[in-house]
């Protein structure tokens, strides 16, 4: 059975040596001293590796079961959920007034990586609840907050997001679910929603569905969509549970992975709903959940890549097969371990350099979210809104590829379910799809975020890269050659691509959109390149100051060099493709495909 | 449920317009007139789309079931197998004297693509039989041939390959299964084999296992391994079946995909075996099967990519979602079909340009195999032995990626099993692993094939590319710019990579092996680039001669241009990685992963 070890040392390195969180000006960050975060991360690490990880295979094998309208989660899930609740983990970064611990989002993110790595399907129950609670926090009335948040922050009640219908996913303007206003100010919600994660299950007293629907008589299309709170059980004035509401589970979807999470068809049959936020502004309210959810999904890409990598490394060290081409390294054994072979190392280094770079990228993004939300920093808000589709799209595409590479190291043993490597790829696959398929992320990036506010945020990103290079160049020729020069070249490629879009996208927007996925990927590489340069600098400084474990820092530098040499130059290929424009992409008539 | 349409027109184009098979000198090719091959391909197309494709999902859902030592195949498999046998398909390219039709291998390959695309798990039962029969044909005594081949060519008896043991897959020198010589010239075989495809099932009267084992007292390691024929039921002098042999199925593996094929743990407990070929030369005999199997597995990569692509195209044309950025294309409908969106097109063009290029590559490889085996052409034999790891490794890595892209077009519907897109990725995944994991293919290519016979074969490949460019340059500036120049640049990258290995691989072989997977991929791209240039030339000539369907040929040219612009330039990135050598790959101590 696969195992999971929480990457506490690496998270601490990113938080303190690289991002230097406790020195940041963001409100609440002054409390993030290294010993405090270490205590939290170690405790979370223990919980995730000892309680959640062993249930990962169980969830995959058993799946969820629907019987007489009741969804049964896999064996052990309910007890583990109580364990998680008792530790107060769901409310880690939620406001104290609703029972949370008010820690910054960056800590929630660091802990969230561990939860997702240990058991993605399980963690989604609390993850969706967190997203729904965030939307109520941002858009609810005080009465709504008081009614729902304390129970959701504790996960006594869980939450869901209801967007998709059979005929519409990305294009929510086609939505048919309707809401009829009632005299008491509530609405009757009718319609069918599909792909509802955690839609129905047996681990919570109540489930709070956030549902997009169209108020009768409102505008056509996306501008007529509103968001509603639809509780599974009505909540009485005193907070106790009342009647069952008119929402039922129709079926559970049979999926490629995340079997431990119940993905439901939900039927709303005149269910009572309460408007959340303003009429016809449902998309705005929903996006509060979606942006957070997208960063969370990007994190899942990293998380699955990391746990798959950890197991692949263990296997590569233990499995004896063949001899090193440069001479036996285990001469007394029947063969050498797989890890002696250069092609195995290449695959492992791809994974290692991705996961460590991605971890820094996500945590950096989380500090920007904190700076925006806690510190009111508009520049940080603009920057993270630009980076969100990159975090989601790039990290889940690459994260999936990394799980496939980890599986490959096992040979035939990776293909049978017994070793658990197949599950990592099957679970990771969904992250490329949900919360906006990655093509939609690329569209959001190129079609919307790049030009937002006159291109201010992308300019800020380039200034940030240039500033880092300028501040650190000329002090160490090796560092310049290994890190700053490749970063500069890659960033230049990214700028050239942006320039191409500006010059060619106006006369024909297809010229921009045909390169959108390539742009998202090259942007991701530049971000990881920046992160590696920052990490390398931190490790160099730590080594010079004789601080920390020299092996850790030497490995960090070596892994960073690998990324700069082997991965970052992909930007040139992406630029090459982008610069070819839309002609070859759009040449065929649909009939000739 | 997904559908499958056999690509008869495209296969005919490759066979006749591009490869011009009926004009080739290879014995038997003179019979391959266009109307003959069309009749065969149409008949096979009908069988595969109407009989085999509908059973694909059935096989995935039901899987195989082991009860009291008997393996039950999924509903409908047995009837379909009888159908296939009645049509004589298993013996299509087998010798007439054993009941086959003696068609060239290239026809077997064209038909094989359809079978694999329609139902890979089902087709493996006859595929393994074909491989085992080929080994007996090449290495068996006349008596062995007479005993086994007629029944195997008809698939009344099926065959298996038994290599892997729990502790050894790639490194077969570690093998423990043993063979004890008996006085009657037979051997007693004892040991356990795992991952045995079609190892036990209910569709054949007898199963002929080819088993690698070590004759007691023989040399250590790989040089002491011999190959044995171990029938499930002993065969009497008169050809009728006798006693059950000492081979039993231990269990069926639970796998990520190809559920319709029974992947068995096989236990040999003093089973009677007959030496096939020479003592201690088992690997040589087994490689007869393996080389054929590797080309066949490369074909599976193409086949799964094609069927996934076909369904993705249908979905992209039907699913209405969003509007074209350049103005509504379906103004009377609620939204435009997915196929109007540039990023959807990019993904579809990636798939289309891959599958069509891969089809030509495989069929070209098959003509080389025919030239070698039927025509005794040593140059063709050398060339195809060089290309075999590229066919296997590149086409299965890329083929898998293409199934993932096809699945992505379905959004959430791609992740649920109902639409069948998940199965294509899960089935395609195995092709990167079995018959030598793709890392081993890369090792074979760079460590063995490249330098074989003094590098003669790779030089021949480059001469072939150069010759094609020289013969066709300077006649049409557009063709030169669109096809010949990109091909020349990519081929130059490949040569530079080979040069790097020569200059740096001798002093440190890790410098070559660290770039092996990149080299395999760039080699694959150059091969597909060559195929696209050849196809484009054929289509250009057909258009000029007003021959065939102009839409078909215009689409071919447009798809080729896409490949040359968007895919072929990947060679530069691979060269870049290769030229960085082994330093960053091998820098870390194993303990620091």
TrEMBL record, chains A, B:
Domain Acyl-CoA dehydrogenase/oxidase C-terminal: 281-444
UniProt entry keywords in alphabetical sequence: FAD, Flavoprotein, Oxidoreductase
Acyl-CoA dehydrogenase/oxidase N-terminal domain: residues covered: 79-154
Domain Acetyl-CoA dehydrogenase-like C-terminal: 461-589
Location of the Acyl-CoA oxidase/dehydrogenase middle domain: 161-269
Domain of life where this protein originates: Bacteria
Cofactor(s) the record lists: FAD
Oxidoreductase found in the keyword field: yes
Similarity section: Belongs to the acyl-CoA dehydrogenase family.
Record protein name field: Acyl-CoA dehydrogenase C-terminal domain-containing protein
Species of the source: Sulfitobacter aestuarii
């Amino acid at each position: 059975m696969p195992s999971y070890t929480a990457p506490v040392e690496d998270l601490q390195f990113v938080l303190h040596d690289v991002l230097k969180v406790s020195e940041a000006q963001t409100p609440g960050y002054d409390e993030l001293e290294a010993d405090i975060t270490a205590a939290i991360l170690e405790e979370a690490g223990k919980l995730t590796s000892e309680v959640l990880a062993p249930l990962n295979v169980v969830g995959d094998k058993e799946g969820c079961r629907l019987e007489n309208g009741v969804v049964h989660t896999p064996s052990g899930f309910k007890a583990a959920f109580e364990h998680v609740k008792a530790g107060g983990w769901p409310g880690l970064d939620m406001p104290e007034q609703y029972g949370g611990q008010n820690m910054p989002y960056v800590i929630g993110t660091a802990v969230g990586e561990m939860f997702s790595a240990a058991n993605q399907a399980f963690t989604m129950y609390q993850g969706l609840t967190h997203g729904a609670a965030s939307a109520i926090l941002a858009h609810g009335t005080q009465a709504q907050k008081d009614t729902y948040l304390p129970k959701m922050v504790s996960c006594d009640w869980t939450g869901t997001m209801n967007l998709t219908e059979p005929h519409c996913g990305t294009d929510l303007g086609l939505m048919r679910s309707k809401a009829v206003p009632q005299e008491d100010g509530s609405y009757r919600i009718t319609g069918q929603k599909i792909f509802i994660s955690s839609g129905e299950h047996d681990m919570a007293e109540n489930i709070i569905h956030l549902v997009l629907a169209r108020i009768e008589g409102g505008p056509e299309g996306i501008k007529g969509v509103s968001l509603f709170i639809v509780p599974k059980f009505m909540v009485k004035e005193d907070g106790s549970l009342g009647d069952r509401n008119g929402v039922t589970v129709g079926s559970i979807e049979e999926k490629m992975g995340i079997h431990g999470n119940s993905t439901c068809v939900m039927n709303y049959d005149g269910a009572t709903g309460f408007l959340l936020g303003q009429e016809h502004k449902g998309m705005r309210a929903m996006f509060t959940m979606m942006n957070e959810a997208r960063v969370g999904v990007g994190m899942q890409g990293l998380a699955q890549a990391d746990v798959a990598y950890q197991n692949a490394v263990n296997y590569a060290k233990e499995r004896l097969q063949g001899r090193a081409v440069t001479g036996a390294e285990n001469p007394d054994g029947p063969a050498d371990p797989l890890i002696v072979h250069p092609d195995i190392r290449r695959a492992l280094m791809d994974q290692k350099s991705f996961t460590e770079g991605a971890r820094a990228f996500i945590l950096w993004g989380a500090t920007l979210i904190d700076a925006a939300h806690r510190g009111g920093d508009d520049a940080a808000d603009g920057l993270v809104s630009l980076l969100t589709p990159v975090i989601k799209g790039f990290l889940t595409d690459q994260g999936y590829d990394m799980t496939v590479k980890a599986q490959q190291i096992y040979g035939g043993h990776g293909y049978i379910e017994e070793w658990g490597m197949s599950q990592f790829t099957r679970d990771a696959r969904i992250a490329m799809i949900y919360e906006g398929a990655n093509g939609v992320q690329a569209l959001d990036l190129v079609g919307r975020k790049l030009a937002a506010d006159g291109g201010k945020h992308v300019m800020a990103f380039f200034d940030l890269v240039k500033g880092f290079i300028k501040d650190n160049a000329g002090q160490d020729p090796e560092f310049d050659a290994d890190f700053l020069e490749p970063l500069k070249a890659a960033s230049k490629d990214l700028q050239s691509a942006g320039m191409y879009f500006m010059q060619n996208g106006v006369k024909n927007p297809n010229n921009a959109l045909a390169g959108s996925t390539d742009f998202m990927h090259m942007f991701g590489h530049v971000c990881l390149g920046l992160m590696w340069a920052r990490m390398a600098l931190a490790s160099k400084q730590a080594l010079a100051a004789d601080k920390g474990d020299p092996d850790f820092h030497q490995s960090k530098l070596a892994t960073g060099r690998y990324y700069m040499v082997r991965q970052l130059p992909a930007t040139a290929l992406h630029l090459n493709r982008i610069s070819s424009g839309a002609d070859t992409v759009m040449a065929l008539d649909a009939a000739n495909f």
